[in-house]
Specification:
38% helix, disordered C terminus, binds flavin-adenine dinucleotide
Length: 471
């Protein structure tokens, strides 16, 4: 696909040192955090600024070369697997925090900044950037915005979308646009910022973002509630919300996950519990005190056999840090870890947990479940082995049933991980054929040559036709 003439054009734009075509580099970018998906790109290119991105995109558009924008590759939907080949675009040189504006409460960043860095920089000036995906130490803001990532604080503070005020985006034809800005109000035309957020690299390349910051909460407390059955934990979640309390964090771990996390983090987690809730509240001290007391009461009323509040900030930090290790800890157990993120209305959390257990039993699979219970966002995680074809077929059937159940309960096939390639076959369940067609038309209008992350989210009409012809 890439000949020497085109590669020479890329050398001219970014310098030879920023274009990699050796097999080792191509292999390193042939996969992401999603198991079972791999495809080789033709080149890996690291532009140094927006103009270079625009020049690269223009050439790709001219020669119909697929572009896969890539942050840290931690997505769990094969979103950065270059399934059509082409170039992988890295943002390792575009990794600066450009400005913290304390008057307008904004931070302007390049796409390659790590999420944790944004969190830390905001805290340094007494401000707060709430989105905190479990991967925040390694994920980049460009990836977060493109997946509209959630995190442990989604229930009270919302998700990445809620903190993106403006973007600079390179379109498929090489044009550079700016959307939104440091504005509390802006209704000038369609909301292109929202369109780009969550578009998984298929509508444009994000080269800059202006993020909203809020005042840092005065104080925070963390509590652990232990249960001898899953449903009691799920019912506590509903009871807390029904009592008009919105905690900053409301995370759920089943026993299997708990044991593995403890084995990994070794902080003395109570592995005898069948399920735990990790609950945090932040805000003014008196409000935090009141809410923690009420939530402890509600957990006990809903059959928690123990409720304990972390005594020090360090103890609290250990608990949340341990929760963040859940996926990494589970991945140590079996060669293949497949994590999903079916999401339901909060009131259906108990039904969904019950259904996941039944489906796991029906297909004789090990499925551990943890997740952002307050958001109704569960991560049923199957520990399996991709080399065992027969078992993988059962895994696929089980997940298809889990998605169908989530939809039946008024939920969705993905709450925060995106569609990518992995959930492409299920998208119609959520948005319907007419909804899919609207998305296809938007894609066609913005990227008529289908060069931006092709084959992700849905299949374009001509891709479908060429697939049929190949068969
Ligand atoms: C251990 C672990 C924990 C996780 N926890 C959470 C969690 O709590 N919540 C959650 O929501 N997700 C979570 N994730 C998933 C993942 O971390 C997020 O989706 C994250 O936002 C991806 O960031 P990234 O930098 O790795 O992006 P990548 O994986 O590299 O890319 C993600 C998508 O963004 C696109 N993209 C990247 N940069 C740009 C750009 N500049 N312009 C246009 N498109 C771009 C890519 O093409 C791709 O479609 C977790 C993953 C792991 C491995």
């Amino acid at each position: 696909m890439l000949n020497q003439e085109i590669i020479a054009k890329f050398y001219d734009i970014v310098g030879k040192e920023n274009v990699e075509t050796n097999q080792a580099s191509l292999l390193a970018y042939s996969y992401d955090s999603t198991p079972q998906y791999q495809a080789m790109p033709d080149a890996v290119i690291a532009p140094r600024n927006t103009e270079e991105v625009a020049d690269i995109v223009s050439i790709c558009n001219q020669y119909r070369i697929p572009i896969v924008p890539r942050g840290s590759g931690t997505n769990l939907c094969a979103g950065t697997t270059p399934i059509k080949g082409g170039i992988v675009l890295l943002f390792k040189h575009m990794n600066q925090i450009l400005e913290t504006d304390e008057e307008n409460l904004t931070m302007t960043v390049q796409p390659g900044v790590f999420t944790k860095e944004i969190n830390d920089r905001a805290l340094e000036v007494g401000l707060f950037y709430p989105p905190d995906p479990g991967s925040m130490h390694i994920s980049q803001i460009g990836g977060n915005i493109s997946e509209n990532s959630g995190g442990l604080r989604g229930l009270k503070y919302g998700v990445t979308r809620d903190y993106v005020m403006g973007l600079e985006v390179v379109l498929a034809n090489g044009d550079i646009i700016r959307t939104g800005g440091k504005l509390a109000k802006d209704v000038a035309g369609y909301d292109l910022t929202r369109l780009i957020v969550g578009s998984e690299g298929t509508l444009g390349v994000i080269t800059e973002a202006t993020l909203k910051l809020i005042p840092q909460p005065e104080t925070k407390k963390t509590m652990l509630a232990l249960y001898s059955d899953l449903e009691a934990a799920a019912e506590s979640v509903s009871a807390i919300i029904a009592n008009r309390i919105i905690p900053a964090t409301l995370e759920f771990l089943d026993q299997a996950t708990l044991k593995v996390v403890e084995d990994f983090a070794k902080i003395g987690l109570p592995t005898e519990a069948k399920a735990v809730l990790l609950i945090e509240q932040d805000g003014a001290p008196e409000i935090v005190e009141r809410d923690m007391k009420k939530m402890a009461e509600l957990c006990r009323e809903n059959r928690a056999f123990d409720v304990s509040v972390a005594k020090t900030e360090q103890d609290a930090e250990k608990l949340t840090a341990a929760r963040r290790t859940a996926l990494s800890a589970l991945s140590r157990l079996k060669p293949t870890t497949i994590l999903e993120d079916a999401t339901v209305p909060r009131s259906e959390i108990a039904n969904m947990v019950r259904a996941i257990t039944e489906i796991a039993n029906k297909y004789q699979l090990t499925i551990c479940t943890f997740g952002h219970a307050g958001d109704g966002n569960l991560h049923p995680t199957c520990l399996t082995d991709a080399r065992n074809q027969e078992e993988i077929e059962r895994v696929e059937k089980a997940f298809a049933e889990i998605f169908e159940k989530a939809i039946e309960l008024g939920g969705t096939i993905t709450g925060e991980h995106g569609v990518g390639v992995m959930k492409l076959p299920y998208l119609h369940l959520k948005v319907g054929e007419a909804g899919l067609e609207v998305m296809r038309q938007i894609k066609k209008a913005l990227d008529p040559n289908n060069i931006l992350n092709p084959g992700k989210i849905f299949v374009q009409q001509h891709e479908e036709e060429s697939r049929v012809n190949e068969q």
